[in-house]
Structures are given as C-alpha cells and as structure tokens.
C-alpha cells in the first residue's frame, strides 16, 4: 500500500510543478503590480497606504525568467522601469521606432517634468491634478504625433496660468527630445537573447512557494497563507460534514430503493429526487433560510455567520460545537442540492449488479436481502462511488461560494468572491494553488481507495 501511494506521489510532482508554473504565468498576465495598486494607479478599490508601510512590501525588481528573448533595440535592463505602465510604454515605443537612445532621453525629460509639477504647491496651481493626468496620459499613447499634441496642450495651459519659467523650459525641452526621435526600424527586427541567471522572478517565486510563502495581500498586507488558512478551516468543516451526510443518505436511500419490497415507492421517490435536482442551490438555500431561520416560520437555526468568537485558548472541539448550529443550514443546503445526483449514480451502480452471478449465489445461500445489498452489492459498487466521492471533494469547496455568501460564512468561496472584486491578485493566485492541490490530493485519495476496494489492483497481472 505504501509503495503504491509513493509511486502516485512521484507522478503527482510534475503535475504540481506545471500547475505552479501556470499560476505564476497567469499572475504575470495581470496588468499592474502590487506597487501600482498600493499607489492607486489601477482601480478604485484600494485605498492609498502610507509610504513607509508600502515601501517595505514592494517586489524585487528582477527579470521575469532565467532568460529573455527581446529585440536588439530594447535594452536588457528595461524590466527595472517602474511603474509597469511606463515600462510597457517604453517597450511599445522602442519596438516601433528602434531608437532607444532618443526614447530614453525623451522619457527622462518627461519624468523630470512630472517631478517639477509634483513639487509645485497646490496654491500656485488651480488645476494641478488635471495637468498631472494629461502628462500621465502620454504613457498611454502609441504615436509620436498624439504625444506632441498632448504636450502642446499642456504648454498652452502652463502659459495661461503663468507657471514658473523652469517648468515651461523643461516642457519645451521634452517636446524637442520627442522631435529628435528618428525611426530605426531595422534594429527592432533583430532578435537578442539575454541570460539572467537564477536571480529572476520565477526562481524566487518557486523557491518561496516550496518554503510555503505565497506573499502578502495587496489589500491589507496580511499573509496570503494566513488569509486562506482561516477561510479554509470553515469551508473544510462544511465540506466534510456535507460529504459525510450526503453519502450516508445516498447509500441508505439507494439500498432502500433496491429492496424488492419498495417497488411501489421507487417511482415516487425517484420523482421527488428528480424534482429536487432541478432546484438551483441558491434557491434551496434561501428557501431553507426563510423556513428554518426566520420569525415568519420556524426560527430553529441562526441565520448568518459562523458562531461567536471564543477565547484563543479554547480547545478546537469546543469552537466546533459553538459553530455547529451556524453551519447546520449551509450543510443541509449543500446536502439536499447534491443528494439527487449522488443517489441516482449509486442506485444505478447497485442495479447493474443485481443479476450478477455472485449476487445470485449469495441469495441462494439464504442470506437476507439487506445482507446481500450491504455486504456484497455495495462493496462491488464502490469503484464508481469512489470516483464520485473524490470528484465532489474539490467541487464542494469551490461550490460553497454561493452558500458562504448567502449565510455570511467567512470561507474559501466568500474569500474568492471578495478577492476577485478587490483585485487582490496575490490572494487569488494562492486560492488557485490551494484548489489545484486539493484536486491532486483528491486524485491520490481515489487511488488509495481503489487499491483497498479492488483486489485486481493489489495483485500483479
């Protein structure tokens, strides 16, 4: 058994590495960085953080990978330019013109202009914010003619407001540098390969992942591991209770349906299950919330939350006992929503085994119908059930997003929704990794169950 599991674990390692690499590449396709979000340059969700606080959490400015394939007109240190919008602007500009020296001179003149505008007191400039936005908009343009028109517009406003002479001179100098950019398209077509070594973002990210460090949240600077662990504990509790109750009821209903004495009730019961299967999960949850947690009907369970906060020294089992009434409705909702499908699958698997020779032999020995179903039929119907069980494990974790938002439970599903809305991408990437790890763990668990349930796997061919 141990050797079998170890073989499966060795096969899983490449899969885990591929998932990690894909998550890393996915995180790099997102526009902007944590530095941009903290400075409020991307989106309106994030509040501005204190400079002293944000400066300690910036990512190291290193290349993306071990090597990079670039245009020969593009410098090999372009990755150092921050923020990302400036870097993308320079890369696009140099690929169209090929004249990096002239572009660098224009960029330096433009950033100097921004710094001088920033140092001007607010009292000396009525529309300082408008001028800042106009200068920043230059980094979103792709044609030199559009950049020239924007700078001329800024110059007219500066002269109208009688801004300091040094600012107007710098503005004129920036326009002069823009006009000096002569296109050299041939250089942009020549490829160049640069080796960066192990000091790159992928190596540092993978090393941190192996050590269990997924970074910090861009929103509140809390460790990604801490945020996910806190949310996962609630979701795991709901998932385990739902899976246990779901498969217990599904097995019992399937056995009951396959008894000969229940023929008259079989069609009626299956009809009810098919009707329940057509009800969406959120409607089921809202109906239970109205019926069992409101003053209008039966106020049996608490409607929202995950239980009161207990002292840190309180044992875990005491905390779980406090949480049970709050988790009752979410567990019941998930169980009822998935019960028709699981019961139908187990019922069909049991029916297919009813006329097998070993079942007829067991009946011929005089064993009762209940013993035949539980001891012989169910054991041989375990293989499709194992696949179903391990497939439901990650599905329930991700599918709990609706339940956790309806019942205000701080779990993985609710964290996922909040993270997407807040564009907190480090936490989002951590959730994707956790879900991938859960899926892999479910597959390993399925292999172990197959090994225990099917003697053909244990015996060499």
UniProtKB/TrEMBL annotation:
Keywords: Cell membrane, Membrane, Transmembrane, Transmembrane helix, Transport. It is a multi-pass membrane protein. Gene3D superfamilies: MetI-like. Residues 232-446 form the ABC transmembrane type-1 domain. The keyword Acyltransferase does not apply. The chain crosses the membrane at residues 236-258, 279-300, 320-342, 381-407, 427-453. InterPro entries: MetI-like, MetI-like_sf. GO terms for biological process: transmembrane transport. GO terms for cellular component: plasma membrane. The keyword Cell membrane applies. It is found in: Cell membrane. Belongs to the binding-protein-dependent transport system permease family. This is ABC transmembrane type-1 domain-containing protein. It comes from Adhaeribacter arboris. The lineage of its organism: Bacteria, Pseudomonadati, Bacteroidota, Cytophagia, Cytophagales.
């Amino acid at each position: 058994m141990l050797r079998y599991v170890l073989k499966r674990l060795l096969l899983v390692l490449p899969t885990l590495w591929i998932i990690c690499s894909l998550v890393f590449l996915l995180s790099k396709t997102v526009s902007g960085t944590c530095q941009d979000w903290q400075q409020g340059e991307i989106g309106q969700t994030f509040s501005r953080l204190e400079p002293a606080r944000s400066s300690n959490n910036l990512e190291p400015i290193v290349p993306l990978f071990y090597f990079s394939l670039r245009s020969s007109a593009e410098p090999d240190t372009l990755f150092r330019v921050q923020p990302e919008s400036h870097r993308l602007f320079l890369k696009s500009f140099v690929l169209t013109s090929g004249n990096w020296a002239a572009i660098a001179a224009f960029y330096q003149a433009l950033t100097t202009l921004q710094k001088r505008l920033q140092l001007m007191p607010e009292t000396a400039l009525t529309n300082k914010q408008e001028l800042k936005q106009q200068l920043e908009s230059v980094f979103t343009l792709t044609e030199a003619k559009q950049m020239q028109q924007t700078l001329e517009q800024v110059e007219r406003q500066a002269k109208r407001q009688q801004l300091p002479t040094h600012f107007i001179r710098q503005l004129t100098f920036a326009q002069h540098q823009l006009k000096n950019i002569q296109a050299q398209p041939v250089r942009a077509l020549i490829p160049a390969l640069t080796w960066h070594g192990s000091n790159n973002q992928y190596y540092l990210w993978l090393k941190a992942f192996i050590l269990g460090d997924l970074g910090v949240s861009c929103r509140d600077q809390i460790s990604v591991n801490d945020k996910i662990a806190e949310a996962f504990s609630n979701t795991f509790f709901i998932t385990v209770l739902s899976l246990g109750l779901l498969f217990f009821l599904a097995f019992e209903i399937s056995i009951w349906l396959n008894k000969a004495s229940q023929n008259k009730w079989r069609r009626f019961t299956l009809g009810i299950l098919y009707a329940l299967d057509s009800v969406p999960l959120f409607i089921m949850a809202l109906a239970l919330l109205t019926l069992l947690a409101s003053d209008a009907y039966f106020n049996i369970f608490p409607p929202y939350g995950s239980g009161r906060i207990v002292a840190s020294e309180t044992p875990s089992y005491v905390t779980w006992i406090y949480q049970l009434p709050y988790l009752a409705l979410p567990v019941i909702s998930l169980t009822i929503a998935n019960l028709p499908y699981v019961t139908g699958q187990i019922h069909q698997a049991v029916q297919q085994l009813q006329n097998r020779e070993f079942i007829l032999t067991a009946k011929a020995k005089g064993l009762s119908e209940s013993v035949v179903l539980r001891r012989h039929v169910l054991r041989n119907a375990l293989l499709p059930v194992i696949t179903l069980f391990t497939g439901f494990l990650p599905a329930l974790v991700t599918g709990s997003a609706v339940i956790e938002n309806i019942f205000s439970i701080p779990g993985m599903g609710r964290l996922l929704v909040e993270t997407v809305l807040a564009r907190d991408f480090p936490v989002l990437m951590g959730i994707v990794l956790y879900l991938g790890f859960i899926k892999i763990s479910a597959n390993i668990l399925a292999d172990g169950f197959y090994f225990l349930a099917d003697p053909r796997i244990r015996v060499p061919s």
